[in-house]
UniProtKB/TrEMBL annotation, chain A:
Record-linked Pfam families: DmmA-like_C
InterPro entries noted in UniProt: DmmA-like_C
UniProt superkingdom: Bacteria
Protein name: Dimethylamine monooxygenase subunit DmmA-like C-terminal domain-containing protein
Annotated Dimethylamine monooxygenase subunit DmmA-like C-terminal domain residues: 104-146
Source organism per UniProt: Fictibacillus norfolkensis
From TrEMBL, chain B:
UniProt-recorded name of the protein: Oxidoreductase
Alphabetized PROSITE patterns for the sequence: 2FE2S_FER_1, 2FE2S_FER_2, FAD_FR
Source superkingdom: Bacteria
A family per Pfam: DmmA-like_N
Keyword line: 2Fe-2S, Flavoprotein, FMN, Iron, Iron-sulfur, Metal-binding, Oxidoreductase
Domain FAD-binding FR-type per the UniProt entry, residue ranges: 4-109
Keyword Cytoplasm: no
Automatic annotation (TrEMBL), chain C:
UniProt xrefs under Pfam families: HODM_asu-like
Lineage of the species this protein comes from: Bacteria, Bacillati, Bacillota, Bacilli, Bacillales
InterPro entries per UniProt: HODM_asu-like
Top-level taxon in the UniProt lineage: Bacteria
Species, as recorded: Fictibacillus norfolkensis
Record's protein name: DUF3445 domain-containing protein
Length: 151, 318, 318
């Protein structure tokens, strides 16, 4: 996930999906799109209207590029939705902001534990094993692997 | 290392399906079933002719789950180098030959939400097994198929019968033209597949790129390697010091093998990557579809079956 | 359970006096995915107990792996029956199969391709008859994914965590693997793997103890032995662990079967061959720190080297 939105050239249409804070993050890319007179559409996100977003994204044609800037708490749901609809990683940029929680997969009992992004150690809340957080990530579990803590 | 043809088959029937296309059915010689395959698969056929061994690739057009037989469709090409000519003029029912195991370099996308096939002429062949796979899985697809006329359109009755809603035909003798603008209407999540003459593929590939299709959603199959407009001879130097000349009409692979320098190879169209050779020195012109752009730019390896030297000499690390 | 390794069947893994990560795959001479060794019965007992006591740890599959699972059933049964006809047989009538395992005195009837005709998933069923762990790598778009697997004897990794993962992500924890570009080349190699031409490679590590089931899940049970190794007990306690890994292209789903047969041999048994001791001593002395670390040898490398030195001196004084 990038921190800054990057303009991707050569698309027939650009979609910007964000809340108010996110629109500031997207402003430079948006200016670029406007300057080059490229087709675009804004989608002002609100959590209550998530089904509308699904309908909106499903109507898009090939050649569309999607930018999403949302709080981490919303981002993953939207990301999964766009993927389900058919937006591939080559056709999207996702940027999250705010408080970020990650999941840690316990290597012994497979329980997912919630942790803060910077956390390096924790105790599995199910089997009580002391875990060391690794950077080994599973997309399917949307989680990082927790190894037995050494020492 | 998969140079050796691995399956022994016998021709069990030959059917002329258009003026220029014949369909050949083969069954296993050993009594053991033939391997099942996936949509888009081809086999290499090894023809022992009077002028030497001819290796040609053909898509399997039979059902992927049918292990009792394989079918291929061969179009007699005007400038045949012997392959299609041999199939059309010499092959008889009962003849035996060796073919490779099924290979798939043109497979269906797994993540696609919708598949669209663009075929011109005999380019229809890989799509037949792909459509069978998709309809068995209940996935959506459409076919756009251009041909000179209804008469010369291979598998026209079959496709019309089995995929009446999904298929669209374009016959040039009826002033129907398959336009690249068709690419504008596909919903997000579509993967497109092109097969036909080089010019046809290029036209659609470029158009898809201009519309903003990501490369990963665009698939195409060439049966012959990209032709270098001006093929020039070049020299290679091997580690043992010997120098070999690759004439303009030869490939590096052919020259190495003729010289007794054995290197593993397989597809011979720059697709499988088996014949990759490390290069110590010299400028390489890559014509393959295997190496990534980045790997090509590194200029330190060459696929001997299609790629060439474009400086005076290439120093090979073999 | 005491695991006395079997010297006659031990696949000694070293060729040179140095070791680095590489794609050391070679084409198989005998294209078989399985091997039955004298410890078959004992290992099947252990494997079945693990599968029934810890199904989540030892077995994982994604929904779309079903066709591929059946391909594995067909391939493995084919290999068992053709290599060990006195121990295994199969009777096929259309899709009705009767598989007989004479070693375990079992007879299983099922309808090939029909999931409900077996009490468990097809891959789970067949893995109860072979010593190998069986991993199904599905080709999806331009990548390979671990989409099903039966894994009882892992070398310190978790199938439950890795299920559904891309090839490169699976190998992410191996230090140096990505930096050296090996992950990309091996992925490209696997993607070009062809039906009819299977490959094999050996992988090795050292372990303190003699457990076959060194899963990441049970690390707290077996990992602590690493701290108990001394130069006195290393011969008995430390084992060299070799995986015979085999790779088969499954043509129906254009995917890959990866079978792993794990062999253990105590260092004192290895020491019965003086050439092996010499070579292994040289390799271990020279091994870079990141490989030592990843293979989990750091704690007791010194003790093992001392043990090997002693063995070498004994040979010299004899």
């Amino acid at each position: 996930m990038s921190i800054e939105a990057v303009f991707i050239k050569g698309k027939r249409k650009y979609i910007f999906c964000s809340d108010e804070y996110g629109s500031r993050v997207l402003s430079s890319v948006f200016e670029h799109v406007k300057k080059e007179k490229l087709a675009y559409e804004w989608y002002h996100f609100s959590a209550e209207k998530r089904e509308w977003l699904e309908e909106f994204l499903s109507k898009q044609k090939m050649g569309t590029f999607l930018y999403v800037v949302l709080p981490y708490s919303e981002l993953y749901t939207v990301q999964m939705m766009a993927k389900r609809i058919g937006f591939s990683s080559d056709e999207t940029q996702y940027i999250g902001y705010g408080e970020k929680w990650i999941s840690i997969f316990c290597c012994r009992c497979h329980e997912l534990n919630r942790a803060e992004e910077q956390q390096t150690e924790l105790t599995c809340h199910q089997c009580r094993l002391k875990l060391e957080v690794s950077d080994h990530y599973s997309e399917l579990h949307h989680a990082f692997l927790g190894y037995p803590a050494t020492g | 290392m998969s140079i050796e043809p691995t399956l022994f088959v016998r021709i069990t029937s030959i059917e002329k399906i258009t003026k220029q296309v014949k369909k050949f059915t083969m069954s296993s010689e050993t009594g053991k079933g033939l391997p099942k395959f996936s949509g888009g698969t081809h086999v290499s056929t090894y023809l022992k002719t009077r002028s030497g061994l001819i290796v040609r690739q053909y898509s399997l057009v039979s059902h992927p789950d049918d292990s009792t037989k394989y079918e291929i469709a061969v179009r007699l090409s005007e400038d045949s180098k012997g392959g299609s000519f041999y199939w059309h003029q010499e092959m008889k029912v009962g003849d035996r030959l060796q073919i490779s195991s099924p290979r798939n370099h043109f497979y269906l996308s797994f993540k696609a939400k919708h598949h669209v096939f663009y075929a011109a002429g005999i380019g229809i062949t890989p799509f037949l097994s792909m459509m069978q796979d998709l309809s068995a899985k209940g996935q959506t697809f459409e076919l756009h198929y251009a041909s000179k006329s209804e008469d010369s359109c291979a598998f026209h009755p079959y496709i019309k019968k089995h995929y009446p809603i999904q298929s669209h035909f374009y016959f040039s003798d009826q002033q129907q033209r398959l336009q690249i603008t068709s690419l504008e209407n596909h919903p997000i999540g579509t993967h497109v597949y092109f097969c036909g003459p080089e010019g046809f593929i290029e036209q659609f590939r470029i158009a898809a790129g201009k519309l903003g299709y990501p490369e990963s959603s665009v698939h195409y199959e060439r049966f012959l390697p990209t032709q270098n407009k001006a093929m020039k001879a070049f020299k290679v130097i091997l580690q043992n010091g010997s120098e070999l000349i690759v004439e303009e009409k030869q490939t590096l692979l052919e020259v190495l093998l003729a010289n007794g320098t054995y290197i593993p190879y397989s597809c011979r169209v720059g697709r499988c990557g088996t014949c990759e050779i490390p290069v110590a020195e010299g400028k390489i012109e890559h014509f393959d579809d295997f190496l990534s752009e980045e790997q090509k730019n590194e200029q330190n390896c060459i696929l001997a079956c299609v790629s060439r030297g474009c400086s005076d000499k290439l120093v090979l690390k073999i | 359970m005491k695991w006395t390794g079997d010297l006659a069947h031990f696949p000694y893994p070293f060729k040179d006096s140095t070791y680095r990560y590489s794609n050391n795959s070679i084409p198989m001479k005998q294209p078989l995915s399985i091997e039955v060794t004298p410890s078959y019965k004992k290992e099947m007992l252990l494997k079945r107990k693990l599968l029934s006591d810890h199904p989540e740890r030892c077995y994982q599959s994604l929904l779309h792996s079903m066709t591929g699972q059946w391909e594995i059933v067909e391939l493995v049964i084919d290999h068992l029956v053709s290599k060990y006809p006195q121990d295994f047989s199969v009777k096929k009538e259309n899709n009705s199969w009767i598989f007989t395992n004479k070693i375990l005195d079992e007879k299983i009837e099922f309808i090939f391709g029909e999931k409900n005709s077996l009490p468990c998933e097809p891959l789970f069923f067949i893995s109860q008859h072979v010593q190998e762990d069986l991993i199904y790598m599905r080709q999806r778009d331009d990548n390979l994914y671990l989409d099903a697997g039966q894994l009882c004897f892992p070398a310190n990794w978790s199938l439950a965590f890795n299920i559904g993962m891309k090839f490169k992500s699976i190998h992410h924890p191996i230090p140096g693997f990505k930096e050296e570009g090996l992950d990309q080349r091996i992925l490209q190699f696997l993607m070009r793997l062809e039906a009819g031409t299977p490959w094999e490679r050996l992988n090795w590590s050292l372990m303190a103890g003699d457990r076959l089931d060194t899963s990441l899940e049970t690390f707290d049970q077996w990992g602590r032995l690493r701290k108990q190794v001394t130069s006195e007990n290393a011969g008995e306690l430390v084992h060299i662990r070799v995986e015979v890994q085999k790779l088969f292209r499954l043509p129906r789903t254009n995917s890959i079967l990866f079978s792993i047969h794990t062999h253990l041999l105590a260092l004192e048994q290895l020491a019965t061959n003086s050439e092996w001791v010499q070579q292994f001593y040289e390799i271990l002395s020279e091994l870079p720190a990141h490989i030592i670390e990843y293979k989990g040898i750091s704690n007791y490398k010194k003790a093992v080297l001392e043990y090997l030195e002693k063995q070498l001196q004994q040979v010299k004084t004899l």
